[in-house]
């Protein structure tokens, strides 16, 4: 015989990756987001606990969204994951799973601006894809087109989803640079069309100086060696259009001198 009192007398730390309250025109629900890097036999029980606890605490239906960067992990997480005896499982967890097999690669700024949350999910699910730098750059530019609260939320969610992969460090470095430095011709056109709000303030000389400093900062934050010649040439440039081209290249080049090519 075991004790019938199921009250927990000692606090147990249980933390989800992200928890959001979503209000639509027809209903209100909770969105529980978990980033999963590999199959874990202990996760189904933890996820079941999260869902039951949230239902009891908030009296709202909850959706479990599991975001994976490996197709094999996504296939495992999709389940259904049964809890209980094999002859009669009493509990089944069925997450909504996103992975590299069902989330598109978003590298185009227009596509990213049209659906910024999808662009963020693209970055998380394709963190190991060779095109990840282009995905992150498109997302960084697209973030300019949404309000500050949503922007900060997506920046944080993206960082959590990218985790300790190299792309996660790249994202943290990119976000340490003011987003107005990411001003490609496409993002400028989006501004003109009203999809991206705001414009750089201050005098042209000041904008060019800040942009030049931003190019050097991005290269250094990415670990790219910046020679004295490159630093002098960049900081001495006052052509904003050229600086924008260099900034776009600074996000992806492996050698600093490559920003001048073309």
What would you say this structure looks like, in words?
The structure is a single chain. The chain is of the alpha/beta class and 262 residues long. The chain has three domains: 18-98, Trna Endonuclease, Chain: A, domain 1, CATH 3.40.1350; 103-199; 201-262, no CATH class. It is built from eleven helices and six strands. The chain has helices at residues 43-58, 71-78, 109-114, 116-125, 132-142, 148-162, 166-175, 185-192, 204-221, 228-235, 240-250; strands at 18-23, 28-36, 62-68, 81-84, 89-93, 96-98. The strands form two sheets. The chain has a four-stranded mixed beta sheet, sandwiched between helices. A two-stranded antiparallel sheet has the order 4-5. The relative contact order is 0.08.
Explain the layout of strands and helices.
Blueprint (H helix, E strand, L loop, with lengths): L17 E6 L4 E9 L6 H16 L3 E7 L2 H8 L2 E4 L4 E5 L2 E3 L10 H6 L1 H10 L6 H11 L5 H15 L3 H10 L9 H8 L11 H18 L6 H8 L4 H11 L12
Parallel strand pairs: 2-3, 3-6
Antiparallel strand pairs: 1-2, 4-5
Helix pairs in contact: 4-5, 4-6, 5-7, 6-7, 9-11
Shape: elongated
Structural class by secondary-structure content: alpha/beta
How is the largest sheet built, in terms of strand order? 1-2-3-6
Query: How many discrete structural domains?
Result: 3
Q: Low-confidence spans: pLDDT under 50, at least 5 residues?
A: 194-203
Beta strand %:
5-15%
One letter per element, helices H and strands E, the order comes to EEHEHEEEHHHHHHHHH
Number of helices: 11
Helical percentage: 40-55%
- Tell me the Rg in angstroms: 23 Å
Q: CA-to-CA gap between the ends?
A: 77 Å
The biggest beta sheet is recorded as: 4 strands, mixed
Average pLDDT reading: 84
E-strand count: 6
């Amino acid at each position: 015989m075991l004790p019938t009192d199921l009250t927990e007398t000692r606090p147990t730390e249980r933390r989800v990756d992200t928890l959001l309250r979503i209000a639509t025109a027809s209903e209100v629900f909770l969105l529980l987001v978990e980033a999963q890097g590999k199959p874990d036999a202990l996760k189904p029980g933890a996820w079941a606990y999260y869902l039951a606890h949230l239902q009891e605490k908030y009296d709202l239906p909850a959706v479990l969204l599991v975001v994976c960067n490996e197709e094999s992990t996504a296939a495992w997480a999709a389940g259904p994951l049964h809890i209980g005896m094999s002859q009669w499982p009493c509990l089944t967890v069925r997450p909504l799973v996103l992975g590299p097999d069902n989330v598109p690669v978003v590298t185009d700024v227009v596509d990213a601006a049209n659906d910024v949350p999808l662009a963020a999910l693209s970055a998380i699910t394709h963190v190991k894809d060779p095109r990840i730098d282009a995905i992150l750059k498109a997302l960084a530019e697209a973030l300019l087109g949404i309000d500050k609260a949503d922007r900060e939320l997506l920046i944080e969610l993206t960082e959590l989803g990218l985790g300790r992969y190299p792309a996660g460090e790249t994202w943290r470095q990119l976000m340490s640079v003011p987003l107005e430095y990411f001003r490609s011709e496409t993002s400028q056109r989006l501004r003109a069309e009203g999809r991206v709000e705001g414009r750089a303030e201050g005098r042209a000389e000041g904008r060019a100086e800040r942009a030049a400093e931003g190019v050097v900062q991005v290269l250094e934050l990415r670990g790219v060696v910046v020679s004295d010649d490159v630093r002098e040439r960049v900081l001495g440039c006052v052509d904003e259009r050229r600086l924008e081209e260099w900034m776009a290249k600074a996000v992806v080049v492996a050698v600093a001198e490559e920003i001048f090519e073309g």
